[in-house]
Every structure is written in structure tokens, then in C-alpha cells.
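Lecture notes, unit on protein representations.

Consider one protein chain, 179 amino acids long.
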Amino acid sequence: MAEWSGFNPAFDDTEWDDAWSSVPVALVPPGEHPSGYRVERGVMYEAMIFDRPYRLSAPFDARLLYDPEGRLWMSNTPQEHIMMCNNGRLSRGHVLIGGMGLGVYPQYAMPDGVGAATEFTVIEYSSVVRDIVLPTLQAVLTVPMNLYMGDIATFLAEPVSVQYDTIFLDTCLLYTSDA
């Protein structure tokens, strides 16, 4: 685990590191949500990682989250795992997470992964993401997690009432009002 040295504006989460491939990560199961969102399983043998094509040494089990119109909304590709692992390695203490994503980052950030998180507070905007991802996270997290529904920007603009040791923002611009 990397030693914490405070905020580092030169930190680059795209630095190649193989540590991500040795951390077991639970993936959300494929299936369709009642809202029309669906999670599909994708097996990758090759991937673009930081704009370079790679042939993977073993098949990679990915998840692809599509909205009701069939647009890809989220995925967990090898590149995303590398970036989440790099961020997770520097995570410690009480971690504020803006956006659950597909639940990959907390698994790297906890001590069972590569990090040193002791508690998570997650602010998630989408009830669909919550419904799809929460059961997987609840089954594998070994540290407490508090989940609040809302907008992380609004949350961050409110008066400070809790001190966080790490803040990780994994958000996207929402293009539908039903997310």
C-alpha cells in the first residue's frame, strides 16, 4: 500500500499497474431492472487501455449497464479497474464517494483490496444504480457503508459536518430525468 502524503496534484490514475488483476472484485449480476435498465455480461479478450490496444492474458469478465434506450451508461473495463485500483491504493480512513458506479472502487479501497478505507459514505443520485449495485456491495464490503440518495454537488456545497480522509468522485452527466 502506498504511503499517504496528502493531496498530490501530479497523481495520475492512468499509471499502469498490475495490482488490479490480483484483487478479487465481485461484479453485479447480469439482468434487467424493472425500470428498463439492464446489465449485460461481456467477455473481453482484447481491450483499449489508455488508448493502446492490449491482448489480455486471460478472458476479462466485464459488466455493461445500458439505459432503457439501449445506450451504454456504465461499464467496468480493464482500464476502469486499473484507475479504480490506483485510486483505491491511496484511499484511507472515512471515504466519501460521489457516485457508486458499478461498485468497483470501494472493493479496491477497502483493506481487503489495496486501500485502507475504514468506512464509506456514498452519495448516489440514481435509485436505479442503487438498486442494481447495492446488493453486490453489501455482500462483499468488510467495512461499514452509509448510503444517501442525492446530488454530490449539493452535498459538497452544504456546511461541513463530517471530516473525510479521502474523497472519491465517480460521477457522470445525466442525460435523462428518470435516472
